[in-house]
Design goal:
By secondary structure, the protein is α/β, with parallel strands linked by helices. The chain contains 15 helices and nine strands. Strands 1, 2, 3, 4, 5, 6, 7, 8 and 9 form a nine-stranded mixed beta sheet that branches.
Length: 377
Amino acid sequence: MSNGLVLTGGGARGAYQAGVLRAVGELHGRRPLPFQVVSGTSAGSINGTYLASRAEDFEEATAGLWALWESITLDKVYKTDTSTMVKVGAGWIANLGLGGWMGSGHPQSLLDTAPLRALLTQALDIERAQRNIASGVLHGLAVSTTRLDTGLGVTFYDANPETLPWVRRTRTSEQAHITLDHVIASAAIPIFFPATSIEGLWYSDGGVRMHSPLSPAIHLGAKRILAIGVQRTAGRPAVLPAPYPSTAHMVGLLLDALFMDALDADIERAERINRTLALLIPNTAATQSPLHPLTLLTFQPTRDLGRLGDHPLTQFPYVLRHLLRGLGATDEEGWSLLSYLAFEPSYIKQLLSAGYSDGMARKAEILAFLKASEPDN
C-alpha cells in the first residue's frame, strides 16, 4: 500500500511545510522516506523535489530542508537592487499608463526571480531524484503547473512507464523527467513571478488550476496520504468596524483562493467518498467500484500565517515597497499579500517554528500513520 505526500503552495508560506516535515522526520528517524509518492504544487513542488532527491534518509532530508528555508532572504528569491526594480517598475508604468504605445514589449512580471533559479540549481539535486525513481526508491514524483495558452492545469510526473496519464476537464498530466524548469514553473506566482518556458510552451504556478491537489498522488498509486496546507481552516476573525478593503487586501484574498482553498475542498470530497464506500457491501465495493477508501492525515496551520509576522514594508526593496503602498498595503493592511512575498529571515523562522509546533502537537497521529506504513502492517 503506497503512501503519498501532498504539498500545496503559498510563496514564502512554504516554510510552514518545512516545519511540519521536520517534526515528521524526527519522529520517523534516520530511515528512508516513508512516502513512495510525492506531489507538490507551487512552493510545495520545491519542498517535494528536495525530499525526493534525498529519499535515503528522511530525517536528514527534513533537517536539510529546514536549513534551506532558514537561509533564504529576499535577495535570494528575487532581485532587489534599485536599478532592476526601477527598470521593471518603469516598464509596467509605461505599459499601463500608455497602453503599450512605447512598443517595447509588455513586462513579464513584477519581480525578476533569477536569484531563485540560482538558489534552486544548487539546492535541488534533480538528477538524484530521477535516479531514486528509476531505482524504485520512489514510485513517483509529481509537479503541478498551469499552461498559459490553454489555461489547463498540467501535472508533470515521473514514474514507472506503465503509469497511465489522466485527463479531466480542467487538468491533465504528462509523463516527463522532472527538471528544474518544471519546479520553477510550478512556483511562479502569477504577475509577481515570471512564467517558464518548457518545450516552447509557457507554464506558471500550478495553484491557479489545481482544484484537486490530492489527485496526482492518487493517480500515482497512493492510498494513504499525508497532506500539508498553508491556510488556517477556520478562516480569519472578523474585525469591525472595517474600512473598504484595499487593493492589496483583495489581491491577497485572490491568492488565497488560487493557492489554498482547493485542499480543503478536496479533503471534504475524499471524506465523502470514504463514507459512501463504507456504506457499500465490501465485496460489491471491491468488485464493482474503481474507488477505494483513502486514509488521510492532513495538516493546516492552527494560526493564520498571514498574521504571524508583522511584515513591515521597510523590509522590501524601495520600488516594490512603493508599488505595494500604491496597492494599499501598509504595516497593518494587506498582510495576506505581503506574506506570500516576505522571504525575510524573521518571518521564515516564525513559519518554521509554527509548522514544527503543529507537527509535534499531533505526535500520536503521526506515529500511528508511520507505524501503519511499515511493511509488516
